[in-house]
């Protein structure tokens, strides 16, 4: 039987491991603040003039809002591969079954140097313990999807993913990755931010030589958050946790981690949020005054009808929890899955 205390995945990178397990019972040690997450980013999005034409693609949300909450790990794969700026524009070309990265005008093949840089950089990244990545859309190096793909004769034949993005995904299959353009969509942006912080907690969990009992606690604290996304998957995760003490521990943890991140990928719909809010209210209702209960239900229904943002019933619930403490409910990551400022004014959905 494998050692259940072994770190079950190589995705924790260089995150410092805790030297003692005593008192670990709760993987968050009574709090959810694990410090700023580490986020990789295409360097041109930070306003650096590293594009092929000597320009940049500054993203205002990234530098004015997100920058306050994350540690950046910037990279420009094409600069890193020694192509300099300004440089020839690149494009993806399909030759037989292989996709190549070539200079659009001269046809010079840059595939090998890009892959070599990816290898070096991703080794470096492993030691930085990344919790997410923001990529520049449509770039033949950084683009996550919908990057134009050409035939040798220059005819466009479809779309693909950039060379760097492909390597990144292969090396860190669970890491949340998003493109700059998709961050303009409120739902996609909030989902991405939520997954960054969830992945940070998962990385922290893995870095602390978790036991089956730790997994029980981890799941318990995420139960409502997972249920708001996909109730059926949340139940399936509960079954993995229920069997955590049997069989191959490493396989169980890997299966849980994969399903945990997959569960959060799906947008949490209004109806599911309302159901979770009612569920949490159920823990308090016997101790609440009738008027408070009616007010709470009113705000949940207002939210369900999209007349008010989620932050309203959530704030009210938190207010009642301060008066009527309930450890199980207060331990739910659902109540604050990420810093409140990152969701300000965005939750009318
Ligand atoms: S998209 Fe990627 S490769 Fe292109 S300039 Fe930006 S960081 Fe560099």
From TrEMBL:
Pfam families: 2-thiour_desulf (PF04463), DUF1722 (PF08349). Residues 223-339 form the DUF1722 domain. InterPro entries: 2-thiour_desulf, DUF1722, UCP037004. Residues 1-22 have a biased composition (Polar residues). It comes from the Bacteria. Residues 1-31 are annotated as: Disordered. PANTHER family: INNER MEMBRANE PROTEIN (PTHR30087:SF0). This is DUF523 and DUF1722 domain-containing protein. The lineage of its organism: Bacteria, Pseudomonadati, Acidobacteriota, Holophagae, Acanthopleuribacterales.
């Amino acid at each position: 039987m494998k050692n259940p205390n072994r770190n079950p995945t190589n995705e924790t990178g260089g995150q410092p491991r805790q030297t003692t397990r005593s008192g670990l019972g709760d993987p968050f040690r009574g709090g959810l603040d694990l410090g700023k997450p580490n986020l990789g980013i295409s360097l041109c999005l930070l306003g650096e003039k590293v594009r092929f034409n000597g320009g940049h693609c500054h993203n205002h949300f990234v530098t004015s809002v997100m920058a306050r909450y994350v540690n950046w790990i910037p990279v420009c794969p094409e600069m890193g591969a020694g192509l300099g700026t300004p440089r020839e524009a690149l494009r993806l070309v399909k030759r037989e079954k292989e996709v190549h990265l070539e200079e659009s005008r001269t046809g010079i093949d840059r595939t090998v140097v890009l892959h070599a840089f990816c290898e070096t950089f991703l080794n470096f990244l492993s030691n930085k313990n990344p919790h997410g990545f923001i990529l520049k859309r449509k770039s033949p190096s950084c683009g996550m999807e919908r990057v134009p793909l050409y035939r040798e004769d220059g005819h466009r034949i479809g779309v693909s993913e950039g060379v760097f993005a492909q390597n990144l995904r292969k090396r860190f299959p669970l890491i949340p990755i998003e493109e700059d353009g998709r961050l303009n969509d409120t739902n996609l942006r909030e989902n991405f931010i939520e997954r960054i912080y969830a992945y940070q907690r998962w990385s922290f969990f893995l870095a602390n030589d978790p036991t089956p009992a730790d997994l029980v606690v981890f799941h318990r604290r995420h139960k409502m958050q997972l249920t708001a996304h996909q109730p059926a998957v949340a139940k399936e995760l509960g079954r993995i946790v229920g069997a955590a003490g049997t069989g191959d521990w490493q396989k169980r943890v890997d299966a849980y981690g994969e399903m945990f991140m997959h569960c959060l990928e799906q947008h949490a719909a209004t109806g599911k949020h309302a159901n979770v809010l009612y569920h949490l209210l159920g823990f308090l209702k016997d101790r609440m005054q009738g008027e408070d209960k009616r007010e709470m239900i009113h705000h949940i229904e207002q939210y369900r009808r999209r007349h008010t943002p989620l932050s309203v019933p959530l704030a009210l619930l938190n207010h009642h929890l301060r008066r009527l403490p309930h450890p199980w409910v207060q331990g739910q990551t659902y109540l604050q899955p990420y810093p409140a400022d990152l969701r300000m004014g965005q939750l009318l959905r």
